[in-house]
Each structure stands twice: as structure tokens, then as C-alpha cells.
User: Fold this.
Amino acid sequence: MAILLTEPAADRVRGYLKARGTGIGLRVGVKKTGCNGFAYVINYADEIEESDVVFEERGVKVVVDEHSLGLIDGTEVDFVKEGLNEAFRFRNPNVTGECGCGESFSV
Assistant:
């Protein structure tokens, strides 16, 4: 089981954590929503809960709750810049469908 970070994603997280001055890593999860069932949730981790699973990827701690891990195991998190837009992108091998806008997915 693992959540992977590309080098651009790891660089972005390290930079934000340094600028923020606090935090232990990146928290990745899912919530039930959208036209296809689930959406990714990404934030900075300030603490580790008892039900969290922690991975170390490219020098960054990636924190995932146990429930979300079953849906996103094996996901690669990337950070992309396209013109003036920049965002984290997810490549989840468990996805069986996505909505047209790419905001939600099903497994």
C-alpha cells in the first residue's frame, strides 16, 4: 500500500510547509460527493491520528486515513502548472469512472 508523489508535488509540499512554518506533511483523502461518488481532499497534516497511515515519499510524509486508503491505494499525486493555473493531479489506478469535469470519481 502506498501513495506516491512526483518530484514536482514533493517540491511544492516542501515549499509550502517551509513558508507556512508548521506542519508535518501532506494529508490526502477522499470524501463522498460529486456526480461519480468521491472527490479527493488534500491539505497539510498538522498531526497524525490513530487511524492514519503514514508514508514517506521523496522526503515528504504523506498521511492518509484508513478509510480513504482503500479507495486511493497506489495513487500518484502530481503537481502541474498549465499557463496561470496550477493544481495537484491524481492518477488513481482504482478509478473505474470520472465525471466530465474531472472533479469526482468512482471505484
